[in-house]
UniProtKB/TrEMBL annotation, chain A:
Record flagged with keyword Transport: yes
EC number(s) stated in the UniProt entry for this protein: 7.6.2.9
Class of the enzyme per the UniProt entry, highest EC level: translocase
Biological classification of the source: Bacteria, Bacillati, Actinomycetota, Actinomycetes, Propionibacteriales
Keywords: ATP-binding, Nucleotide-binding, Transport
Entry GO MF terms: ABC-type quaternary ammonium compound transporting activity; ATP binding; ATP hydrolysis activity
Positions of the ABC transporter domain: 30-265
Organism: Propionibacterium cyclohexanicum
Protein name (Swiss-Prot/TrEMBL): ABC-type quaternary amine transporter
Superkingdom of source: Bacteria
UniProtKB/TrEMBL annotation, chain B:
Membrane topology, record value: Multi-pass membrane protein
Domain ABC transmembrane type-1: 15-197
Transmembrane segments: 21-41, 48-69, 81-99, 143-167, 179-205
Lineage, top ranks: Bacteria, Bacillati, Actinomycetota, Actinomycetes, Propionibacteriales
Keywords, ordered alphabetically: Membrane, Transmembrane, Transmembrane helix, Transport
An example Gene Ontology CC term for this record: plasma membrane
PROSITE patterns assigned to the protein according to its UniProt record, in alphabetical order: ABC_TM1 (PS50928)
Identification of the protein by name: Osmoprotectant transport system permease protein
Location(s), subcellular: Cell membrane; Membrane
One GO-annotated biological process of the protein: transmembrane transport
Family the UniProt entry places it in: Belongs to the binding-protein-dependent transport system permease family.
Pfam families: BPD_transp_1 (PF00528)
Amino acid sequence: MLASTLVVCPYAGAMSDATPELSREQPPAISFERVTKTFPDGTRAVHELSLGAPAGQITVLVGLSGCGKTTLLRMVNRLVTPSSGAVALDGHDVAAAHAVRLRRQIGYVMQNAGLLPHRCVVDNICMVPRLLGVPARQARQSALALMDRVGLDRGLERRYPAQLSGGQQQRVGVARALAADPAVMLMDEPFGAVDPIVRADLQRDLLRLQRDQPRTVLFVTHDMSEAFALGDQIVLLAEGAQIVQAGRPSDFLTHPADEYVARFIGLDNGSGSLHTTVVDGVPLVVDANSRPVGRLDEGPA
Amino acid sequence: MRWLANNWDTVWQATLAHLELSLPAIVVSFLISVPVAWLAHRFSWSRFTLVTLGSLIYAIPSLPLLIVLPLVLGTTVRDQINVVVALSLYGFALMIRAGTDALDAVPASCVHAALAVGQSGPSRFFTVELPLAGPGLLAGLRVVSVSTIALVSVSGVLGINSLGMLFVDGFQRGILAEVIAGILATVVIALAVDLLLVLAGRALLPWTRASARRSR
């Protein structure tokens, strides 16, 4: 309801412009109001979906490939226009915003980093600030500081993307998305193409960045364990972007909505259930096949 | 060798004239074909027409074209402009297909990434698509450059000064050394211009060498 009303937000004195000025201190909530997307070829990627992503939290959209989760993500920065319904940031319909300006205010990390191969690391990171008119020297200084924050060696600043490892490329992708200090971040399977150890590092770093400065993050993945690792909220989607279950990660384990959910998170065959055992006097957590997954710390977590 | 020593100035003048005809034609054909290639790349309906047009132009025999063009341009047959326009047409014909392919080869993910960070219209073309099409455009331009430098010689038949004049004159007067000098000089300047293009490519497209090093 709130999204269907067109709200014109004052934008730095330019009254003719409806692009909301996204506040950095108070990140906006994202809301989908009965959105449907039918592509020209007749595929219905999303049908009548309503969904809210709370401000300052990570909402993970998880589902099998082709379930419409990427389409949903792209509606937020208007790379995809809904056939009906509306997407709003803090109640401001994005359809009323200036598309280019909106995209510059929203961080976007894509699969395989999506870096520009003809620009070196620092120039890739500086893209949005430069588009926004930040002087080159200043943009470079901020980019170097960002490289520190995302765990990239400053010595890599003049490398081209092809000279980096997959994990480093992905870090550059995250740094680029953060460069304009956006209040909203869209992340489309950003860590899908890197090996598990690097992925765990990247996930940990993302959580650290989020703790330092909360942003409203919409994160798409097909990996349930990644959803558990990152999500404040998890939305499990089936084909046509139908919501199977939405809630806190713990809700999925305590109250799986149905068989499908239980199977998706591995509760049905016991792989999602853990128990404790004591080996050589050390309490261990083991899975259904008695393989150890970790140590049980004494006392409250 | 003695002929060359005695006629050094003639060869030098012919070489300069040769470059004066070919270089503008190379530049003009590049500048015209890039926007047209963009049209062919961007709008699928125009692609067939434009690329076919290129092939058709290339099929026109050069000598008749040099004789017919003045009727359109209002110049004389021996006018430099006449030759430059004819050569540009052939260059354009070669470059249009190479240019279209080069723009097609720009990875969609890069264009998408630029769009997603809020880079719009013309600035995206000039800062993302055009540089990424660079290697393909350079490859096309190298073919155009060599082909144009070779083709200039035809104008020698019409009596326009170029290295082509050395073949025509040497052939008519039976001076083998002159013919060979003409051929060698043509090859030398074709290679020299090609080398300059390669060096320009290295300077302007530094990332292509970076990727090559990595993949080795």
